[in-house]
Amino acid sequence: RSLRIGLVPADGIGREVIPAAKKALEAVGSDIPKLEFHDLLAGFELFTRTGTALPDETIRILREESDCALFGAVSSPSRKVAGYSSPIVALRKELDLYANIRPVKSVGANPGGKPVDLVVVRENTECLYVKQETIVPSETGREARATRLITERASRRIGKMAFEIALQRARKQVTIIHKSNVLSVTDGLFRETIRAVPRLPEVGGKYDNVRLEEQIVDSAVYRLFREPEIYDVMVAPNLYGDILSDAAAALVGSLGLVPSINAGEHFVMGEPVHGSAPDIEGKGIANPLAAIRSAALMLRHLGYQKGGDRIDAAVNQVIEEGEVLTPDLGGRSSTDEVVEAVLKKI
Ligand code: NAI
Ligand code: MG
To answer: Does a structural domain hold residue 104?
Structure first.
């Protein structure tokens, strides 16, 4: 049976890097099933043209006719736009993709300094991203409020995911990132729930060899920059995980290198960590490696280890050789030239 992949490039450089990831998948050949692609619409540009950022048809094809997906990026405006809501946040919810897994690993001599090899495991469905915001007039000017939702269920399943990932890694360490010293109720529940995961009856002691650490989020960022080697798996609520993974990307030289998958019980969606990069859109210089690595991560999550490894090895070789790189990594090559270099290695 073929592997059915929904492609949602969405906005900006998403449209430049998702075709690159598609080519890398096609180049893998015999280590994975025959591929079948669905081109799907979403994004802010689509919204400005049609009034819809995430068509029902896109959700339907992802749900009913796809085994997995690749998402590019959306250009969500920083101001409130009536009727618009981010399609990526909606998709994560619609498909219950509760874990955002973001490995950050340096290749060769890390241009950013010390070697980095960590995974940010970000809760993907709640925290402040439930987007329950209200604004009311008050005597002293307007007052804006947001709801921050943390549930035991979501904290437990993201905690289990973090331990599961740690088990497969050499260091076997999980660090809970929180701010329970201030937000003792919400972050307190997140922290406590994850601390209790190794003792859950259904876990049956399988995480006994995983070291459990914790760190307050602000000092975690500080230490991440000074001593990234102390981290292995970092598990965080949605907002902290979002910020931490961009920060970690700086340590390996570029956001254009860092992949992710959004994973749930029944579906997985690869997505580069970066956004739509309007400053370089249309110039043909977007780094395609984050998107290509996201495709590899997606394959491995689906159990196609060999196919994923082949793509990753090709990407790593291109980075190590350092001859064909986009400008964000100090190179002079175009997106297409980097894609060609990767395809040759695959
Ligand atoms: P961004 O990640 O798009 O760009 C930040 C900086 O990194 C820019 O200078 C950009 O040129 C550079 N960069 C990012 N990816 C790159 C790549 N592949 N190759 C070379 N350089 C790269 O973040 P920014 O500029 O803050 O946000 C732009 C838009 O993207 C906003 O509308 C934001 O809402 C959206 N966004 C969407 C995300 C998503 O779809 N998941 C995630 C983050 C931002
Ligand atoms: Mg982000």
So the answer is: no
